[in-house]
Write a structure and sequence with these properties.
Order of helices and strands: EHHEHEHEHHEHEHEHEHHH
CATH topology: TIM Barrel
Low-confidence stretches: none
CATH superfamily: Aldolase class I
Largest sheet: 8 strands, parallel
Radius of gyration: 18 Å
Mean pLDDT: 94
Distance between the termini: 33 Å
Strand content: 15-25%
Number of domains: 1
Helix content: 40-55%
Shape: globular
CATH architecture: Alpha-Beta Barrel
Number of strands: 8
């Protein structure tokens, strides 16, 4: 059964921009975030607190947070991969810290220099730091559907990682199709396993979140499947921009405006003006120096204005 409403986490300022070859200035990042907030977005993954040598596009994380105007009710999150990143995110004023635990050893080593076991230990530490600072701690299991270096990931492994992650009491737990290889049947299976892990955990009932890339054009079908399977939080990126510096040929996220069109057709509330998000696409393409994958910004509004 579909939920009545879904929460959208806008990831274009972080996941959307991190793999772009052309540097995007702080002022343009702020313009993007503020445009999304005006459109009704209430959760924004604004940046990531990683070493600038690893992800140069995120070198201005503190400047983005310092320059951001946050109306009441808007939650701003930062991605962190280690204790130092968590310290920076807390000091910069993030409302929420999002941590990534990786489901494959090879990707974990390349993405954040950690084994899966080390990632779980760091997550527990980051979760405690966030709670002590009065911030939300959320976690996403990356490469849950497949790894560019190891291939298919055993669903039982993902389920076991989820059970260990849940011991540290995340406010929200997500599954990420980092390289866009998942299909709806896989999505239904993995989220059923995640539901089962949550049901027997001793740390409350965190919301289930889904993060899909559209590399093989299954992202929107996967989002629909995730909703049917109980997810109530979806990540998306304005214009469908995005990718991962450590995942070869992984293309963009599902586009926020296109996802909103789907949700509107399904009768699932989200609170965001889809045409206002789509209107950002031409400007985004100019800033990035290439067309964006999102479709709604390339066509007429529907239904037509009366």
């Amino acid at each position: 059964m579909l939920p009545d409403a879904v929460e959208i986490v806008e990831v274009s300022p972080r996941d959307g921009l991190q793999n772009e070859g052309r540097p995007v200035g702080t002022a343009d990042k702020l313009r993007l975030i503020e445009g999304l907030i005006r459109a009704g977005v209430r959760r924004v993954e604004a940046t990531s607190f990683v070493h600038p040598a690893r992800v140069p596009q995120m070198a201005d994380a503190e400047a983005v947070m310092a320059g951001l105007k946050r109306p009441p009710g808007v939650v701003v999150s930062g991605l962190v991969l280690n204790r130092r990143g968590a310290e920076r995110a807390i000091a910069a004023g993030c409302d929420e810290l999002t941590f990534t635990v990786v489901a494959s050893e090879a990707f974990g080593q390349r993405n954040q220099g950690q084994t899966v076991e080390q990632g779980l230990l760091v997550w527990a530490e980051v979760s405690a730091m966030a709670r002590a600072a009065g911030r939300r701690a959320t976690v996403v299991i990356a490469t849950a559907f497949g790894c560019p270096f190891e291939g298919a990931v055993d669903p039982a492994r993902v389920e076991d990682i989820a059970r260990q992650v849940l011991r540290s009491g995340p406010a929200e737990i997500g599954l990420a199709d980092t390289i866009g290889v998942g299909t709806p049947r896989q999505v239904m299976d993995l989220f059923a396993r995640l539901r089962g892990a949550i049901a027997v955990s001793q740390s409350g009932r965190p919301a289930m979140r889904a993060h899909f890339h559209n590399t093989r054009n299954t992202g929107y079908a996967n989002a629909y499947a995730a909703l049917l399977a109980g997810a109530t939080v979806l990540d998306s990126s304005a214009g469908g921009i995005g990718g991962c510096p450590f995942a070869p040929r992984a293309t963009g996220n599902i586009a926020t405006e296109d996802l909103l069109y789907l949700l509107d057709g399904l009768g699932v509330r989200h609170g965001i003006a889809r045409e206002a998000v789509a209107a950002l696409d031409p400007w985004l393409a100019e800033v990035l120096g290439h067309p964006v994958p999102g479709q709604l910004g390339k066509t007429d509004a529907w239904p037509p204005a009366a």
